[in-house]
Specification:
The complex is a heterodimer of chains A (293) and B (312). With 293 residues, chain A is mostly helical. Chain A is built from 13 helices and no strands. The radius of gyration of chain A is 23 Å and the shape is globular. Chain B is α/β, with parallel strands linked by helices and 312 residues long. At the A-B interface, helix 1 and helix 6 of A face helix 2, strand 5, helix 3 and helix 4 of B.
């Protein structure tokens, strides 16, 4: 018979490295990415984001297929086959749904479930928390926009008659135009959805408010801008969702004229609106969370 | 991997030092001119709802800024150096703080990473800590499926997973059934055995009596008492029986500033320290009352709290 000892695993002290505020911010960032994608959550929380991601990827594959079916990219473009700007346009609807899901998920559960009290008992500032959440949003939504574009770009390069590398070399401008367009979408939509999610306590209501703000804003702005009173055209700037689309069209080719363009505003007005909206949202959200901390 | 210098652990004899601390929420004064020192060990922070307990804890975390006064937590000022203080503290809030759509293992691991523990080590410590609080079998279940008692254990686990120097527990036994309460208090006692200083905020005085070795009593933002629990126990009452003239004896003792309740020939004197007995003997001798017997009883924290005498 051997001597048997029961060891109490008990409490163990920790003498290893501690990463401080930087480690805390990285943890919030990683958790944010996982939360939006439903990773580590119940299966039903994975269905919606991954379905939208699948649709965006399939759209890119279909676009490549159209060009491949026509046989020659130059010819297919002449015939109006869809390309980079059209891909943005195609999934603008599902991207709005994706953002309406991501923004509220990143902010609201932490606040309504009391988890903020855990965050702010750790070496983490309000600014660090919000920066990490914005980083997670930008990463996931940015990937949602960019990955299909990268697939489209590489797919077109593969089927290009001039060859893979010559096609890439001949379309270097895509490497900055697509990211800048993506940034415009992320900045505007992120500012709106984060501002709403910082004051609304239900994710569904925040998502609906986000979509409603964009759609209603566009409709109302268009009507008011047509009214015959001095300065009415400035109302067209309230069509928030039109501004990143104007930037997209400016960079990747015009499709249709949006309300601010009809009212006579240049693309720079849209850039200013986005920058201004982001600044106002940042000040508002920061003030709100400093009160909550 | 760079170690953050603010996170260096260090042993201190005084975990909390407060001087002239005042805080208000507009017209409501939460803490008024508070001055106290709390040593290592398990400290009970007691007081009725609204006494200022949670405000004091939030000030310790640097989440609130006092109107006046100063505070040192583990030798650091939480107003000027909140991140260093927080890196050495574990905090279990009174209210809900658990994301219901995460598993216990994931959340506790995340809580460790928020305190700066690297991810791989955080996972390991999460598993060990959930074992310690008795949730090893349930650690991969979602928190939304947990009972109140299990959720309280997870809240404790997230507070201790990063091996803090000081643990702040805000009403840790709140919402627990009697068995769960006993288990939670046993866990807190067990932590003290591992050299973790603990400040337990509670309005259930029996919990404090069972768990703590130092007590801070607050009432409406003012300090009633701060001292070792043993000292409080010494502040008991003394039962006195005299042959005659009990009212005369009582009035002489009252003149010394002590409370006396007269019941026939019996007097209940105190609470007070061991100066009561000589005082009673002198009063009995001076009045010629004839002392029959004198027995000291211990006062409960509740007795002491109900007297609401401010700290000397």
């Amino acid at each position: 018979m051997t001597d048997q000892v029961i060891y109490d695993r008990g409490y163990r002290t920790y003498d290893g490295p501690r990463l401080g505020p930087g480690g805390a911010r990285r943890a919030v960032y990683k958790d944010g990415v996982r939360r939006v994608l439903g990773l580590g959550r119940k299966a039903r929380l994975k269905v919606f984001p991954w379905s939208l991601i699948a649709i965006a990827l399939i759209a890119a594959a279909v676009f490549i297929g159209i060009h491949w079916a026509i046989g020659n990219i130059e010819e297919s473009l002449r015939e109006g086959a869809p390309t980079y700007g059209d891909l943005f346009d195609f999934y603008s609807g599902i991207s709005l749904l994706f953002i309406a899901l991501a923004g509220p998920q990143l902010l609201i559960p932490d606040r309504t479930k009391g988890v903020l009290s855990v965050y702010f008992s750790r070496p983490l500032t309000v600014d660090g928390y919000l920066t990490a959440k914005i980083g997670a949003f930008a990463t996931v939504v940015g990937a949602f926009y960019l990955v299909p574009q990268v697939i489209l770009h590489l797919g077109l390069a593969v089927i290009a008659t001039e060859g893979f590398l010559p096609y890439l070399g001949g379309n270097l401008d895509i490497l900055w135009k697509v990211p800048v367009t993506t940034l415009a979408f992320i900045a505007l939509h992120g500012a709106v959805v984060f501002a709403l999610s910082s004051v609304i306590d239900r994710t569904g209501i925040a998502a609906a408010s986000f979509l409603g703000t964009l759609f209603a804003g566009g409709a109302i702005a268009g009507r008011v801008a047509e009214a015959a009173f001095p300065g009415a055209r400035f109302a067209s700037l309230l069509a928030l969702d039109h501004h990143p689309r104007i930037i997209r069209d400016h960079l990747l080719g015009d499709t249709i004229a949006y309300a601010p363009e009809v009212a006579g505003f240049e693309v720079w007005a849209s850039v200013l609106v986005i920058v201004g909206l982001v600044a106002v949202a940042a000040v508002f959200i920061r003030a709100r969370y400093r009160r909550l901390a | 991997m760079v170690d953050w210098p603010g996170a260096k652990k260090k042993r201190v004899m005084t975990v909390l030092s407060v001087s002239g601390l005042t805080h208000d929420y507009g017209e409501v004064v939460a803490l008024q001119d508070l001055a106290l020192e709390v040593p290592n060990g398990v400290t009970g922070l007691v007081g009725a709802n609204g006494a200022g307990k949670t405000t004091l804890l939030r000030l310790m975390l640097g989440l609130l800024h006092p109107i006046s006064g100063s505070m040192q937590v583990l030798g650091h000022d939480p107003q000027t150096d909140p991140l260093t203080v927080r890196s050495q503290i574990g905090y279990m809030p009174e209210g809900d703080c658990l994301p219901k759509d995460q598993t216990a293992a994931d959340f506790v691991s995340y809580a460790a990473q928020l305190a700066g523990i690297p991810a791989r080590e955080a996972k390991r410590r999460s598993s060990e800590t959930l074992f310690l609080v008795g949730l090893e079998e349930e650690r991969f279940r979602f928190l939304g499926d947990f009972s109140t008692g299990m959720q309280q254990r997870v809240k404790l686990a997230q507070a201790i997973v990063h091996d803090p120097d000081l643990l702040l527990l805000d009403e840790p036994a709140s919402g627990l059934d009697p068995e769960g309460r006993v288990q939670m208090l046993a866990l807190i006692k067990r932590l003290a055995a591992f050299d973790v200083s603990v400040i337990v905020s509670s309005h259930v005085l029996t919990d404090i009596e069972q768990t703590c070795d130092w007590v801070v009593m607050l009432d409406a933002g003012r300090l009633l008492r701060s001292g070792p629990l043993q000292g409080f126990e010494k502040l008991g009452t003394v039962l006195v029986e005299v042959l005659e003239r009990p009212e005369e004896v009582a009035s002489r003792i009252r003149a010394q500033g002590l409370e006396v309740v007269v019941d026939g020939r019996r007097l209940m004197v105190g609470p007070g320290d061991d100066s009561i007995e000589p005082m009673v003997v002198a009063a009995a001798a001076e009045t010629g009352a004839g002392l029959v017997r004198m027995v000291r009883g211990s006062a409960s924290l509740e007795d002491l709290f109900m007297t609401k005498e401010p700290a000397p």
